[in-house]
Structures are given as C-alpha cells and as structure tokens.
Amino acid sequence: MHQAGCLVTSISMLLRHYDVIKTDNVEEFNPWICNEKLKAAGAFTTGARLTFEKVSKAFPDFVYAGYEPYNPQRVSDLYNQGHALVGFVQTNSATGHYVAISDATDPNNIEIYDPDSDYTRLDQWGRVFGIVIFRPANGVKPDRAPKSVVEAIKATDEGIALHGWSFDPDAPDQPLSITVEAGNVKKTFTASTSRPDIAEKFKTGQSHGFDISLDLDLSGKQHIKITAANTGWQGQHFDTVIYEDDLMVGKDEKAPSIMGGSRTASDFGTRFMARVDDDFGVQDVKAVVWKEGEKEPADPFASGKSMYLDNGVYTCEFSFRDPQFERVKWNTAIYARDEAGNVSKVNTGIADFTQIPQEMVMYRLYNLDSGEHFYTASQDERQALIGLGWKDEETAWISPIHSDTPVYRLYNLNSGDHHYTTNKEERDQLIALGWKDEEVGWYSASEDGVPVYRQFNPNAQSGSHNFTVLAEENDILQESGWIQEGIAWYGLNSSKK
Question: 3, 297, 408, 464 - which has most CB atoms within 10 Å?
Fold first, then answer.
C-alpha cells in the first residue's frame, strides 16, 4: 500500500503508453479520471493509500506483478520482456516519489516520465529504492519515442543549415523523417546519411544522420521547430521535438550595433568599453590605436587588441607600461565585426601618453583574518580591498613604470594567497602546481635602487611571504621566526622613508 498522487499519475501514463487505455483524448482519460476509477474499484485504503494488487480491479489488463529492490540490469530485463515499471525514488526533501519508466532498453540510461520535475533519467534522482512491476495483459510493448540530436544549426543566406542524427529505437534500421517549421514554411527531409558512430553506440543501422541546408525563403528572426517523426503504433503522438528556438535566418546585411563605445583613463593607461549587439551574432570586437598624424591600420582586426565580454560589456586596456607605446598621442577606435563580415566602427578620441608619469606608487594592504599582505599599484584594486575590510598600510615603495625586470604576480585559487617574484623559474613552478598566472604586477628598479626584502613564515598557511623596504621590519620578523630570503627586487630611490 502506498500514497497516491505521483503514483496515480505514473500509472495513468503507463496505461496509455502500453495501449491499455486506447484514447488520445485527455478529457476522456487523465490522472484525475484514473484516480476516480481506482477509487471506485476500492483500490484505496481509508488512509488514501493505494493497494497495488487492486489496480487490476480498475484496469483488468494491467496486472500487478510485484515489487523489487532497484537493480538497473533487472529493470532493463523486465522492460525488454514487456513489463510496465514505476520507479520509487527519494526526493531532495527525503520523501518518497514515484516516476513512470518510459524506456529501459539500456540499463545505463533508464529514461522516465515525471511531470513533477525536469528529470528525464532515473539516475538523476540519486537514490532509487525499488521498482513497482505491472504486466500488461495485451502483450503490447511500449512505443518508444525517437532519439535525436541537432548537433549544429546556423543561418545561411537562404535559410538554415542543420547537422545531427535521429533514429527510432522501435525501427533501428529505418531512416526517419524530419520536419522543419519556420513561420508559415514547412520543410521535410529524411535523416539518411551515414553515421557509423551512432550505429556503434546505439546498435542501429548506418543511415541516421543529416547534414543539410534548407531554403526557407524567409529573413529576420523566425521561430524554428524541428520534429522527428515516430514510426511506432502511437504515431504522431510520440513525434519528438528535437529543436525549438528563435533564430535569425536569411542574409545578414546589417553591421553590428556599437552602443556606448567609450574610452576612459585607467591606473596604467586607457580602458575601452562598449556594448555590441548583432542579430546574427558578434564575431569579434577590437580596440585599435595608431599614432596621431599617421594612417589608420588597413586591417584593424589584425592589429587591434581583442575586447572580451564581461557581464554584457566588451572591455580591454592599453597600458602605458607596455614599452611598445611611445610617449605620443594616439588615435583610438572600437571596431566590431559580425559572422557575415559586416563591420562597425566608433571613434573614441585621443589617448595622450605624452604626460604619463615615470614612476608609480606601490600600496600595501593587510588582511586581519588571513594574515596576508597584498601589494598593488592599482587605486581601483586598493579601494576595493579597503571596502572589504583590508587594512590600508599606504605606500610600500615606488616602482618604475617600466624596466627590464618584471615582477610576476600569482594567485593560489585554494588558499586565496598571492605570491610575487622576478624569478621566471619560480613563477613557472607555481603555475605547474596550479597557481593562476596574473602576469606582470609591476617592475623592479635597478640594483642601485632601494632593496625590497623578502621574508618567509614556515608556519603560516596564508600570507607566508612578506615584502618590505624597511630593514628594521626585516630584522624584527627574523627575530619572530621568519626566514630572511634576501632581496626580492628594488624600488626607486624615492621609496626611502
């Protein structure tokens, strides 16, 4: 005896699936009507629990055949013998739930009907207690819906191009008919190209693929619906929709729209930002610079810098720390190109690199919880950390804008710790161990500059390294058990306090 609801729904679905109930009209048979028939047959106890053995009193051609603990191979064997099966599973709230098994041909992929969830496979429930077994007296085996995948779909000048496969498990050697609907246009073709990979995986015939272009004689956004035709006794009621979505079709003659294309000063140069939209899809967005008074690059997409999409905005930065940027004025622009090659451009003004500084302040911040010190030249990064509760220890030293000795910054995704080094071998070793390479953080001055000392705490899990220009701090940390590791790099002489 078991609670009704999802169990009655599962039984009502199987009654139609196994042709015990021969109507397609949901007004004539549905879970509510099924419940009433079971109630009239006395299948429920006074506690509203369903007695499996009494289901056949309401539906004589649907006989209870037992309950068994869950075993995937046993489920597949029972299904292939023609039994109708209901799975008993555990929900996230630790309550029991029933689902109808729609296809258990493959014990490794048992499919279900479950209107109460988005799950389509039994193993998605995680824990399966057992299987309720019924035997349809009419001997009819279930009609299984086609299995199909649209692996690729794209717009062409005339319509759409499709690539994928489809077959009906009840007729594994028979090519299937596929229908494409777009607006008031309907096109039908047969999935009959050779797909040995599908034949091997599903033990079917070879001819179940499709790779086809269709002329729809439409343009603009269209609602595309692609359906695989069922070959079994349920007919069109088991046709399977394998793709349904809005898609731009026809020839793309409109260039991308660049909205809010702008350029603003950043900590280390100039930052580009833009929103870009195209009905058929954006291919790439580039920020382009060229010296004032010179010709614009002939191929901006070859010479420009890629802008990357972040929260709906394309962005990138040109840094005056990069030695390729001479201390001159630069013309700037943003270019966007769509999949069809249409191009848009927005001019973003002059970036003046003639007045840029030759040095920059390095800030030190301290995390009171983890014990980590953090070093940055970025005011944006500094203010963000202060807002998160880090203690601002203000200026640590002064760094040159550029030199031949970069200081690499790395990040440990597990501990949240940062490390800084001029040693490429040390950088590469940490990257190999899983640290994230955050590229160049700043640059070292020459050896006649102010030494920045490095110390190591062998007992710390986070913040195990410290960097300071203060010899006194270096000595105090050594007395506290830190290991002195010598000079890490140099700051400018203006770092002296």
Answer: 408
CATH of the domain at 168: 2.60.40
Q: Stretch 472-492: mean pLDDT, rounded?
A: 94
Q: Is residue 474 predicted with pLDDT exceeding 60?
A: yes
Give me the domain span that covers residue 445.
Answer: 359-495
Asked whether residue 141 is domain-assigned, the answer is no
What's the CA gap between 272 and 252, in Å, rounded? Answer: 27
Q: Which long-range contacts (CB under 8 A, 24 or more apart) does 339-343 make?
A: 339/252, 339/278, 339/280, 339/281, 339/282, 339/283, 340/251, 340/252, 340/253, 340/280, 342/252, 342/253, 342/254, 342/255, 342/256, 342/278, 343/255, 343/256
The dihedral formed by the CA atoms of 64, 66, 72 and 74, expressed in degrees to the nearest 10: -100
Evaluate whether residue 211 is within a structural domain: yes
Distance in angstroms (rounded) separating the CA atoms of residues 83 and 45: 26
Query: Which stretch of DSSP H or E encloses residue 275?
Result: strand 269-277
404: tokens are: 């031949």
Task: Name the E strands within 183-235.
Answer: 185-191, 193-194, 207-215, 220-228
364 and 488 co-located in one domain: yes
pLDDT band of residue 495 (cuts 50, 70, 90) is: low
> Who contacts 347 (Cβ-Cβ below 8 Å, separation ≥6)?
331, 332, 333
CB 176 within 8 A of CB 229: yes
Which pLDDT score, from 0 to 100, does residue 494 have? 67
pLDDT at 94: 66
pLDDT number for residue 22? 85
Which residue, among 275, 451, 272, has the nearest Cα to 347 in the 3D structure? 272
Amino acid at 19: D
Q: Which residues contact 105 (CB under 8 A, 6 or more apart)?
A: 76, 79, 80, 144, 169
How high is the pLDDT of residue 1?
A: 41
321 and 370 in a single domain? The answer is no
* 375 has a pLDDT exceeding 70: yes
Band (356; pLDDT cuts 50, 70, 90): confident
How many CA atoms are closer than 13 Å to the CA of 468, on its beta-carbon side? Answer: 19
For 270-282, write each residue's pLDDT tens digit: 899 999 999 888 9
Q: How many domains does the chain have?
A: 4
> What is the reported pLDDT for 12?
93
Which residues, 6+ apart, have CB-to-CB distance to 497 below 8 Å? Answer: 469, 470
Burial bucket for residue 410 (CB in 10 Å: 0-12, 13-18, 19+) = buried
Q: What is the DSSP letter of 1?
A: -
In this structure, are residues 70 and 129 in contact, taking their beta carbons and an 8 Å threshold? yes
C-alpha pair distances (Å), 382 with each of 391, 420, 467, 495: 10, 17, 17, 19
DSSP-assigned beta bridge partners for residue 218: none
Tell me the C-alpha distance between 189 and 229, whole Å.
11
pLDDT over threshold 90, residue 41: yes
Contact criterion met (CB below 8 Å) for 491 and 397: yes
